[in-house]
Amino acid sequence: MAAPRAPLHLVAPRWNAGTRGIRGLSRAAAPEGNQKKGRSLLQFLADRFYDVQALREYLLRKQAWKMHQKNRPFTYIRERYGPYAAGAYFILKLGGAVKFQGKEWIRSNARGHFSLDFLKLQTVPVEAVDASGCAVNYQGLDSLLALKELQVLWLQRCPHVDDWCLSRLHPLASSLQELSLAGCPKISERGLACLHHLQNLRKLDISDLPAVSNPGLTQILVEEMLPDCKVVGADWARGLKVGQEEQYQDITSPIPA
Amino acid sequence: MLRTASWPRWGRTLLARGLGSRRGGSAPDQNGKVSEIKKKIQSVLPGGAWNPLYDTSYLPPEHSDVVIVGGGVIGLSVAYWLKRLEKPRGAIRVLVYSRASTVLSVGGIRQQFSVPENIQLSLFSIEFLRNINEYLAVVDDPPLDIQFNPSGYLLLASEKGAALMESNVKVQRQEGAKVCLMSPEQLRNKFPWINTEGVALASYGMEHEGWFDPWCLLQGLRRKVQSMGVLFCHGEVTRFISSSNHMETRSGEEVTLKRIHEVHVKVDHSLEYQPVECAIVINAAGAWSGQIAQLAGIGKGPPGTLQGTKLPVEPRKRYVYVWHCPQGPGLETPFVIDPSGVYFRREGLGNNYLGGCSPTEEEEPDPGNLEVDHDFFQDKVWPSLAQRVPAFETLKARSSWAGYYDYNTFDQNGVVGPHPLVINMYFATGFSGHGLQQAPAVGRAVAEMVLQGHFQTIDLSPFLFSRFYLGEKVQEHNIV
User: Which in A36, A126, B26, B296 has the greatest CB count within 10 A?
Assistant: First the structure.
């Protein structure tokens, strides 16, 4: 907040205009050149505080609306071409890749364009989805959860996938075999706790999750929770100090071999 | 007459010209000084905040449109929704804040209730919590992290309660909750650490259930509500000044309608009080709402009449214990509620758990203080825990605390809405232990009632005060 220009007092102001000039008291520090231009721009913005605040709120709302639009349900495609095509269209539109059963990976090119051939495959289930880096959020998962035979799901580095989204993955429990959550900034160990519904999971990647408080301990707990699954991620020995281990060895081994 | 009409205009221009005609400071500078002087004059005139004799800034203001008694999560939620749903009027609210049970809560949220309105309230509240950073966003403040654990609730039922549980689950599914029923074998497969002896059926909430940090929600609400212009003050309500109106109903009965005009707020550690004139009073005082209602004269009358119906909310002390058990259930542990009333949940990653039990009517502890009874854990809680989860036989109690339930002795469900006789007092209390999980939705319902006169989104008419007089119980079976 800008400091008040003059203290509030009921004294008659001094009217010696000669030395003060047009800016009055704000000229007291006598800024020159660039500093003066910078100051007057800041002053301009500070005078219009509520307008700037309204502008910022508008920009935030616009951003939220854009996210909402990206994750909207494609009900027309779903009704016309089936849930698999709708899910595939959703992922391709966000910039990810889709693999139908028995076909190759379909990916959008650098410009975001992709061929619409998959719309003919109405009964072929989607086998794998690569949504790395895509802006999928809680609402967008609606389209993904309709893919009942999904086996591989890659959600690496998705900025909006959080614990709430993980709690929604349980309908895929019967088919999902590989899940990758590497690098998602919003996922914490609380969301990983609800992955125990996915009993068919064989490969889980939880590396590089910045919001997880204790990666080594979390790795152990997740391994205990999903005994049939290979959990790739944090090295559980990472947090341990090397010095203590050596000391322990010295005490236990009686004679150095 | 013409002269008197024109005099004020003439006088004002003279004043303006008088100030503006001074040679010296330029126009922008002059305008700043003039507005400062005008503000100063306005504060001196009656109605302003300037007091030449002594400093009164610690007292609540003298006028307010709405006074909310109670600064816990329900009171703050009502303030938030009032400010959000009002047509741009900038009405001032004042909160009288004395004590809140919110931060002592275990923090769970579930949809496994038997009354459909409770399920709808929880569903909206979970949606509020999921989008909390959109609802409670304050410019330039960091986003809130309520640390939600979406691990779900697991309610176990014995043979006796199995039929009731099935019908409850049907109602829950109809309202949109994602709950699945499990047999004892399925339970053993999913959670091998459970001893399913005595369990006939279990209902497991898959989504939208779990626990979170209530302190964070409270702080977020408080920050947002302050940024919306609500005034907070510390104090205690000691008196209501009201006026009565004798009216006749259509059938000729005599009815006395009361209207509260002033709330006397006493400052802590002092005898000083401030009379706050208000239009509407909202009783969100939690465990102490019964006392506040008594101050307003609710319940003073022959028993059996509407005047004699008291607000049946009283404080009940509940204990929460924290223990450590290294071989205990793992990361997937949901919030487990045993048929005997004992509950527990996982806390953090270090094999710590917290839980407790609601005592029976005969064993109710004295709510005078918040001292914890450790024998209660030894005698009542631990045996049931060890029986249900054999690993808990080797647990080690770490710490404990106690908090108050605003227990509704009538039917353990909330009281929401206006009082039929004291026409400007609204209730939002009596949730008997599940106030935290319904707070956002209840706040919205009360705000709709105050601003529009009826419930708009969720119809809470079964929860009005009049049910105490009419004797219509809305019994909630799944109370912990």
Answer: A126
Cα-trace Rg, chain A: 29
Mean pLDDT of chain B: 86
| Distance between B132 CA and the closest CA of chain A, angstroms | 12
Determine which of A40, A167, A199, A217 to mutate to test the interface with B (most B C-beta atoms within 10 Å): A167
In this structure, are residues B344 and B353 in contact, taking their beta carbons and an 8 Å threshold? yes
Q: Is the pLDDT of residue B169 over 90?
A: yes
CB contact under 8 A, B150 and A167: yes
A2-22 residue pLDDT tens: 444 544 555 555 554 444 444
Strand B273-277: give its sheet, edge to edge. B236-248, B254-266, B273-277
Spatial separation of the C-alpha atoms in residues B18 and B137, rounded to whole Å: 47
Query: What is the domain range of residue A208?
Result: 73-252
The pLDDT tens digits for B146-166 are: 999 999 999 999 999 899 999
* Tens digits of residue pLDDT in B125-137: 999 999 999 899 8
Structurally, chain A folds into a number of domains equal to 1
CA atoms of B40 and B98, how far apart (whole Å): 33
Beta-carbon separation of A24 and B25 below 8 A: yes
Q: Considering only CA atoms, which of B379, B476, B388, B412 is closest in space to residue B197?
A: B388
Q: Which of A167, A193, A196 sits opposite B207 (nearest CB)?
A: A167
Q: Is residue A160 part of a domain?
A: yes
Is the pLDDT at B44 greater than 60? The verdict is yes
Instruction: Return the sign of the alpha-carbon dihedral for residues B115, B116, B117, B120.
Output: positive
* CB-CB under 8 Å, B24 with A56: no
Question: Which three-class secondary structure string do you get for B332-396?
Answer: CCCEEECCCCEEEEEECCCCEEEEEECCCHHHCCCCCCCCCCHHHHHHHHHHHHHHHCHHHHHCE
Q: Name the residue of chain A whose CA is nearest to B145's CA.
A: A186
Q: Is residue A55 part of a domain?
A: no
Q: What is the pLDDT of residue B6?
A: 45
B30 touches B19 (CB < 8 A): yes
Give the chain B residue nearest A221 (alpha carbons).
B331
For residue A142, is it within any domain?
Answer: yes
A24 contacts chain B (CB < 8 A): yes
- Other beta carbons less than 10 A from residue B176's beta carbon: 11
For residue B341 the two structure tokens come to 């009333």
How many C-beta atoms lie closer than 10 Å to residue B426's C-beta? 25
What is the gyration radius of the CA atoms in chain B, in angstroms?
27
Is position A115 within any domain?
Answer: yes
pLDDT at A32: 55
Question: What are the residue ranges in chain A where pLDDT is below 50?
Answer: 1-4, 6-7, 16-22, 24-31, 247, 253, 256-257
* Cβ atoms A124, A102 nearer than 8 A: yes
CA terminus-to-terminus distance, chain B: 74
Query: Is the predicted pLDDT of residue B4 greater than 50, yes or no?
Result: no
Per-residue pLDDT at B60: 79
- Residue A122: CATH number of its domain: 3.80.10.10
Query: What ipTM is given for this predicted complex?
Result: 0.79
pTM: 0.83
Res. B384: pLDDT tops 70: yes
User: Quick check: A194 and B33 CB within 8 A?
Assistant: no
Nearest chain A Cα distance for residue B446, angstroms: 27
CB A171 within 8 Å of CB A196:
no
Nearest to A22 by CA among B34, B21, B27, B31: B27
Q: Which ranges in chain A belong to alpha helices (H)?
A: 17-20, 33-47, 49-70, 75-81, 83-94, 141-145, 163-167, 189-192, 215-225, 242-252
Q: Closest partner residue to A17 among B25, B130, B208, by Cβ?
A: B25
CA–CA distance, B6 with B236 (Å, rounded to integer): 50
Chain B residues closer than 8 Å to A190 by CB:
147-151
